[in-house]
Amino acid sequence: MDANAQKYHSGFAALIGRPNVGKSTLMNRLIGQKIAITSSKPQTTRNRIQTVYTSDEGQIIFLDTPGIHKAKNRLGEFMVETAERTFSEVDIILWLVEPSNFIGAGEQYIIEKLKKTDTPIFLVINKIDKVKKEEILSFIDTYRKELDFAEVIPVSALQGDNTDALISTMLRYLPEGPMYYDEDTITDQPERQIVAELVREKALRNLSDEIPHGIAVVIDRMKERPGGTLIDIDATIICERDSHKGIIIGKQGAMLKKIGQQARFEIEALLGCKVNLKLWVKVRKDWRDSDLLIKNYGYRNDEEY
After folding, report:
1. How confident is the model at residue 166, as a pLDDT?
2. Residue 260 CA: distances (Å) to CA of 18, 204, 205, 219, 231
3. Which residues contact 48 (CB under 8 A, 6 or more apart)?
């Protein structure tokens, strides 16, 4: 057997892009398990989520960064800083875009940031299941005029099209290295954090557009009962206004119950046992502009862990 075939490659890859281009969907697809929450609303991913892909050929540690956008408050600034800081810390940057010949202001902003990095950049054109195959070449040409890419790979994160090719190409670019995480590890996120994010996802999906930006979820208690067959979880949904609190609770508690039922279903699948989930709602005005509250609700710089 060729000695080179046995060499193990490992390294770090950042998933970047505007909000809603499918970064979390792609990462969940590549890992084969739901870790990052998904929704059609902006600011779904707020922290830098680290997940791990392991095979016989190598190991890729993915950093799913918040969507890069023009910040409107302190939380927005934190999210953009987190994403941009990642550029210099990884071996590959995966820039996820939608299939289009139009490069908007959001993409131009990212292009200017990427011009300053020496890290190999993969242009990953997502959602190719939504367009005709013959159109894809023109989308590639449009982006190639703007930036010099190491690779251009069209994929469908939703359908899984071409994601194997993306993985194999990435492994070719990664240096020879060790297995950083054991082969059973799929994320560095604590269970409490994933549980909080699953509750937030269900709130995002069920609430009207203006409210989700202003919510956070805190796990107050997570305790396994003797015998390990049931876990009690108490969680609080934080919102910014009294009027939002009423909408989140809903008529006779219907909305809060719906969020809780949907979240419990996925939390049970994640933890592999029955869950008794209790939800509360609290108002904390302007928490997104408070550094202290942002940290309290789990949005921290890596250096502060």
Report:
1. 94
2. 29, 12, 12, 13, 15
3. 63, 64, 65, 66, 82, 83, 86, 302
Backbone phi, psi, residue 222, to 5°? -145, 100
Chosen CATH of 191-304 out of 2.60.40.1730, 3.30.390.10, 3.30.460.80, 3.30.300.20: 3.30.300.20
Domains of the chain, by residue range, sit at 3-173, 191-304
Distance CA 146, CA 108 (A): 9
Q: What is the pTM of this model?
A: 0.58
pLDDT in tens, 264-299: 988 887 777 889 999 999 888 766 665 555 555 555
> For residues 142 and 110, is the Cβ–Cβ distance under 8 A?
no
The domain defined by 3-173 folds into Rossmann fold (3.40.50)
The residue behind tokens 């991913």 is: 45
What distance in Å separates the CA atoms of residue 116 and residue 79, rounded to the nearest whole number?
Answer: 19
CA distance 183 to 170: 18
62 touches 90 (CB < 8 A): no
Spatial distance between the Cα atoms of 282 and 284, rounded to a whole number of angstroms: 7
Between 51 and 91, the more confident residue is: 91
- Report the number of secondary-structure helices (H) and strands (E) in the chain: 9, 9
Q: How far is CA 247 from CA 27, 211, 218, in A?
A: 32, 9, 19
Tokens representing residue 23 in the block: 């970064």
CA distances from 271 to 100, 174, 228, 257, 262 (A): 39, 32, 11, 20, 15
